[in-house]
Specification:
seven-stranded mixed β-sheet; 17 strands; single chain; alpha/beta; binds zinc ion
Length: 356
């Protein structure tokens, strides 16, 4: 999934589901005609509708925690079939530009991983897309593995462990990782809280969960939202990229989400993407202003596992018994609550209500 970036100069790079994103409402509705209502995964509250995007998708906000998301939304089956198919990673007309942005982001992320881990280790790339990050990280000396809801040919060509499916449904056979990476992926998932809770279970001691998402509270998205509200944009609310983006995060809502999943934020930043052809002066200016004020359009969180009382007690007991930290199986005292899924019967069009 990790192929789309909202850049700071309002360019949607490699927005892959070309056949649907940007197509007519009729074309979208003929491909996606099964919808489900969604409740806030944090508060279990029915959302309030605040806008309809240019392709007819309903944008909502939780009245309690302010998390924004799509509801009703297309079912995962229809999204997998019609959006995350073989066209999703088709060549972008701005491939060189994307490569420059990717190289910059990948290098920046790996540098931070190495700093927080005090060395290199294993990375699980969730939503590994065409495998470009796997290849880059492997060439930099990291051990890599990947998952995706559908593994693309580029990823399949990699010589590393790969799994297909949603993260919480994959059996990793007891494997643990030093980094679990969600790069422009969490906003595509069915339930980001479940994804993060599962990633927490997959960490080695001292490991990192990395989350990078579009920052809906960034300066550019805020300006575009204001333009949409005043009907000053031809395609209103296009920057939300509703259809394949199901969740829209700000710093506050993403922090609340990762903390509910049992993680704590070590560090966060809003990187400005590198753009080929852009003068170094303009880039430095963007970086100084947007990164300095943390208002750029990408939001990067580096998180570690917050140990619960039960885990701390369990670790203490294990250490008393002389067991090493790395061999200690993680207890999950809060996870059963987080992982509780309540399905509410609904009409065929409004198929399911999710609440965790
Ligand atoms: Zn909420």
């Amino acid at each position: 999934m990790a192929s789309d970036f909202l850049t700071d100069n309002e360019t949607l790079v490699a927005d892959a589901p070309r056949k649907l994103f940007g197509s007519s409402n009729e074309a979208v509705r003929s491909a996606l005609n099964q919808f489900e209502e969604v409740a806030c995964p944090l508060c279990c509250v029915t959302p309030v509708r605040f806008a309809v995007d240019y392709q007819g998708f309903q944008l909502c906000r939780c009245p309690t925690c302010d998390l924004q998301f799509l509801s009703p939304r297309p079912t995962v089956e229809q999204l997998t079939e019609n959006v995350y198919n073989e066209t999703y990673f088709s060549e972008s007309e701005s491939a060189n530009e994307l490569a420059a942005a990717d190289r910059y982001q990948f290098g920046r992320q790996l540098g931070n991983f190495e700093k927080f881990l005090a060395g290199r280790g294993t990375i699980l790339d969730v939503g590994c897309g065409d495998g470009s990050f796997l290849r880059y990280a492997q060439s930099e000396g990291w051990r890599v593995a990947g998952t995706d809801i559908r593994l693309a040919a580029g990823a399949r060509a990699m010589s590393c462990p790969l799994w297909e499916g949603q993260l919480q449904e994959i059996d990793f056979g007891g494997r643990r990782f030093d980094v679990v990476r969600f790069n422009q992926v969490l906003e595509h998932t069915q339930n980001p809280l479940l994804e993060l809770a599962r990633s927490r279970e997959l960490l080695n001691a001292g490991g990192i969960v990395f989350v990078s998402v579009p920052n809906i509270a960034g300066l550019s998205p805020r300006l575009k939202s204001a333009q949409s509200r005043f009907h000053l944009k031809r395609k209103r609310w296009r920057h939300y990229a509703a259809l394949h983006h199901l969740w829209f995060f700000s710093t506050d809502t993403l922090q609340r989400l990762v903390e509910h999943a049992g993680l704590r934020v070590l560090h966060w930043e809003t990187p400005v993407l590198k753009k080929s052809g852009q003068s170094s002066f303009i880039e430095r200016l963007y970086r100084k202003f947007l990164e300095g004020s943390r208002t750029a359009s990408i939001l990067d969180f580096y998180c570690q596992r917050e140990e619960t009382e039960g885990e701390t007690r369990g670790r203490g007991d294990a250490e008393t018994r002389g067991e090493s930290k790395s061999s200690h199986a993680h207890s999950t005292s809060i996870l059963p609550l987080i992982l509780f899924l309540r399905r509410v019967p609904a009409s065929p069009r409004l198929r399911v209500s999710l609440c965790f």
